[in-house]
Amino acid sequence: MTLLEACCTSIESAQEMLQAGAHRVELCSNLECGGLTPTWLSRLCDDPSLGTPSPDGSHQASPSSGGPPHQASPSPGGPSRQNAFAPPSDREITAGLSTSDDPLQLSGKSFLDRAHVLIRCRPGDFYYSQAEVDQMCQSIRLCREAGVRGVVIGALTQEGHPDLPALRQMIRAATGPGTLNSSEVLETATNRVSAAYYADRPDTGIATGYRPLRIVFHRAFDECTDSLGTLEQIINLGFHTLLTSGHAPTAEEGISLLKQLVDKAAGRITIMAGKGVNINNVAKIVEQTRVPAIHLSERPGISEILRHLSILK
Q1: What pLDDT is attached to residue 211?
Q2: Pick from 77, 147, 90, 92: which is nearest to 117 by CA?
C-alpha cells in the first residue's frame, strides 16, 4: 500500500485529513512560499487534548512549554558556521532507524505519532546562517518535547550541495540523547540511538529522555546540483524519507528521475513524491515510479485519492 501524507496548516485541518483517510500529516504554515515552520508550534506542547509522550513512551497531558519557538538565537559572539558543533557523520546517530512506514499500522496510532513538522525558518533559498540553524534547532527541540514523530529539514550550500555542518547540527537536535552515560542506549520500538559519541560532550539543551525524531529531507533536494550523489549523502546521514518532485516543477513532470531515485535507493530510504499530486495524476505517478509514499497539500478528496491508490497492483 502507498503511504499518503497530507500537508496541513493547522491542527484542525490535520485532524480532518487523518479522519478522511490520510496516513500521516506534515504540519507547516505559509504554503504560498513553499511552507515554513508552523507559527503555532508551541500549541503542540500546550494542547492537552493531543497528549505528549513521557520519557517511558506513554502518553500524558502536557504542561505548558513556554513561548513561541523562534525566540532563541545565539549571541553576537556565538560560534561561526565553520566552528559550529558537528555531530558524527553517516548513520551513527540514527542506527536502527526503520526506513518504511506501514500505512495500516499508522492508521491506529495517535495524532502525534502520525505528525511530522516542517522546520524552515524563512522563505527563499536553503543556505542558512548559523543564527538561522540555531533557530531551527530550537524549533526541533520543541517538536521533540511535544512528542511528534518526525521533523522535515534541509539545508544546502551556496553551491547546491548538502550543508553537512548545518544538517548534522539539526540531526543532533532531533536524535541526540543529550548527556547520557556512555554505556546507555536510548531505545524505542522503531529507533535505537547510541549515546557513546555524546558521553564527553556538553549538553546543548536537548530534551534528554524524549524519543528521537525521524528525519525527512525536504524539497531543498530539488535545488541540489547532483541528485544521485546527494541521495547517497542523505542516506548516509540517516534520513528516513526524501520528499522530492524529481527536480521538476511537479512530480508528474519528474517521473523519470523519481523512478531513478527509487531504484537507486533500493529500500534504504523512503522516496516520497510531492508537488502537484492530484486525483488525475496520482495513479500515473505511483505506477510509473513505484514510489512508496505520496505527499499532497490539504484538500478535499483524500478518500477518493486513497481509492485510486488501493486499486494499483
Answers
A1: 84
A2: 147
Domain ranges of the chain: 3-47+84-242
In whole angstroms, what is the distance from residue 214 CA to residue 234 CA? Answer: 13
Q: Cα separation of 311 and 313, whole Å?
A: 6
Distance CA 211, CA 185 (A): 11
**Which pLDDT does position 178 carry in this prediction?**
41
DSSP string, the chain: --EEEEEESSHHHHHHHHHHT-SEEEE-B-GGGT-B--TTTTHHHH-TTT-EE-TTS-EE------S-TT-----TTS--TTTS-----TTGGGTT------HHHHTTS-TGGGEEEE---SSS-S---HHHHHHHHHHHHHHHHHT-SEEEE--B-TTSSB-HHHHHHHHHHHH---S--TT-EEE-SS-EEE-GGGTTS---S--TTSPPPEEEE-GGGGG-S-HHHHHHHHHHHT-SEEEE-SSSSSTTTTHHHHHHHHHHHTTSSEEEEESS--TTTHHHHHHHH--SEEEEES-S-HHHHHHHHHT--
* Domain 3-47+84-242 listed as CATH 2.60.40.10: no
Q: Measured in Å, how far apart are the chain's first and last C-alpha atoms?
A: 9
Report residue 248 as a C-alpha cell.
521538476
Residue 173, all three cell numbers: 537536535
The angle formed by the CA atoms of residues 59, 63 and 68, to the nearest 5 degrees, is 115
Confirm if 191 and 96 have CB atoms less than 8 A apart. Answer: yes
pLDDT tens by residue, 48-74:
566 444 333 444 433 333 333 333 333
Q: Which residues of the chain have pLDDT under 50?
A: 51-100, 178-208
